[in-house]
Design brief:
The protein is of the alpha/beta class. The protein has 2 domains: 2-202, 3-Layer(aba) Sandwich (Rossmann fold), CATH 3.40.50; 207-306, Methionyl-tRNA Fmet Formyltransferase, Chain A, domain 2 (Roll), CATH 3.10.25. It has 8 helices and 17 strands. It has helices spanning 13-21, 47-54, 68-77, 93-96, 119-125, 161-184, 218-227, 296-300, and strands at 2-7, 25-30, 35-37, 42-44, 59-60, 81-85, 103-107, 113-116, 130-137, 147-154, 200-202, 235-238, 241-251, 264-267, 272-275, 280-288, 294-295. Strand 1, helix 1 and strand 2 form a beta-alpha-beta unit. Helix 1 packs parallel to helix 6 and helix 5 runs antiparallel to helix 7. It is elongated and about 70 Å long.
């Protein structure tokens, strides 16, 4: 089975590594161009490029697949299948049609729920109990193709964007190997069309979403904190301090008097609890600008003037 692989970030690495380990012939890897990152603005190779180089796989980094040269290149590879995961470039129909079995996508949701750029984070933010990996036949439109298999996983109460990302990435590797093996053994079921009526779009994350709206219920803010961990993070200002909240717990208690959302209702050497639109939120891990992450006890040790209960 000759495969062309398209992917870019860390999420794409386990599927590539697993395809190679399973003995499939990955003839070429397409990944986005190297970008300048960090304070030194040094060019850094993509995660997929680094993995491909470990296995001696040729790497191509075009800025677009909409050129005659790229079409000729991919056509000349004569691949049986193209596997795409978090590539980041649009793949036009003429490229999708080149491999013998077309192009398959590894998508991090149970389609048609959470089509689009940020399915992992949106699933946590929405309070979904399950998500998973979908292996589908690609079409020119976004995440609408017919589905071969879906592999569910529960969203745990302590899952963050990072932990769920890592688990689904590993699942994606296992899933694509299983599906390609079914293709080779002629046991792959016919792909089923998605029901567009149940489609939900996972919009790209924006930095502006990181601010806490204390008018929201505590449960919603707690999901925001987990979903946006590590990026874009969850930011707020408390008593003049700009804080990033890394972890918090929902508290439900009846208060003797009315308090406003965002108001501190309890602050001592080990606790900082704020009122939300519904219920309260106990912050457990925070970070001040330019400082390291710290427990709420470490943070409150320097805030004795905040102590009120």
């Amino acid at each position: 089975m000759d495969i062309v692989f398209c992917g870019t970030p860390d999420f794409s690495v386990p599927p590539l590594a697993d395809l190679v380990a399973a003995g499939f012939n990955v003839k070429a890897v397409f990944t986005q161009p190297d970008r300048r990152k960090g304070r030194g603005q040094q060019k850094q190779k993509t995660a997929v490029k680094l993995e491909a180089e470990k296995h001696g796989i040729p790497v191509y980094q075009p800025t677009s697949l909409r050129t005659d040269e790229i079409e000729a290149l991919i056509s000349g590879l004569n691949a049986d299948l193209m596997v795409v995961v978090a590539y980041g470039l649009i793949i036009p129909q003429n490229i999708l049609d080149l491999p013998k079995h077309g192009c398959w996508n590894i998508h991090a949701s149970l389609l048609p729920r959470w089509r689009g750029a940020a399915p992992i984070h949106r699933a946590i933010l929405a309070g979904d109990e399950q998500t998973g990996i979908t292996i589908m036949q690609m079409e020119a439109s976004l995440d609408t193709g017919p589905v071969f298999h879906m592999y569910p996983t529960d969203i745990r109460p302590d899952d963050t964007g990072q932990t769920l990302h890592d688990r689904l990435s590993m699942m994606g590797g296992e899933a694509i190997v299983a599906c390609v093996q079914e293709l080779v053994s002629d046991s792959l079921p016919e792909a089923k069309q998605q029901d567009d009526e149940f489609a939900v779009y996972a919009h790209k994350l924006e930095k502006a979403e990181s601010q806490v709206d204390w008018n929201q219920p505590a449960a919603q803010i707690e999901r925001q904190i987990r979903a946006f961990n590590p990026w874009p993070g969850t930011q707020t200002k408390i008593n003049g301090d700009e804080l990033k909240i890394w972890a918090a717990e929902v508290i439900t208690q009846e208060l003797p008097e009315a308090v406003s959302p965002g108001q501190i209702i309890k602050a001592n050497k080990s606790e900082l609890i704020l009122q939300c639109g519904v219920d309260q939120l106990s912050l457990t891990e925070v970070q001040k600008a330019g400082k390291k992450r710290m427990s709420i006890a470490a943070f409150m040790a320097a805030k004795t003037d905040w102590h009120k209960a």
